[in-house]
């Protein structure tokens, strides 16, 4: 998570973040930072906000693009456990 905090706060490139994602990732991190509650992340619909299985763990995700998503916990209007995940689709 430190990587994304540094990226978000200072806009510094990092080898762990693919260069083709930097602009979109920055925009998504801005959205998450500005969100006061989960409903704020339902718009735009392209975020595809979803509660991940198992639901008891309370992890959510929004899409960054077709390949990556941000996974995080959002409890008591606080963000935690944020990470970038290479989203794999199962057929």
Automatic annotation (TrEMBL):
<dbReference type="InterPro" id="IPR035093">
    <property type="entry name" value="RelE/ParE_toxin_dom_sf"/>
</dbReference>
<dbReference type="Pfam" id="PF05015">
    <property type="entry name" value="HigB-like_toxin"/>
</dbReference>
<protein>
    <recommendedName>
        <fullName>Plasmid maintenance system killer protein</fullName>
    </recommendedName>
</protein>
<dbReference type="InterPro" id="IPR007711">
    <property type="entry name" value="HigB-1"/>
</dbReference>
């Amino acid at each position: 998570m430190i990587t994304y905090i540094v990226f978000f706060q200072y806009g510094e490139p990092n080898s762990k973040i693919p260069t083709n994602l930097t602009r979109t990732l920055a925009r998504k991190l801005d959205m998450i930072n500005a969100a006061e509650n989960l409903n704020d992340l339902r718009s735009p619909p392209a975020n595809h906000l979803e509660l991940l299985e198992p639901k008891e763990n309370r992890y959510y995700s929004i899409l960054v693009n077709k390949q990556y998503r941000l996974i995080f916990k959002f409890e008591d209007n606080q963000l935690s456990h944020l990470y970038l995940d290479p989203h794999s689709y199962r057929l």
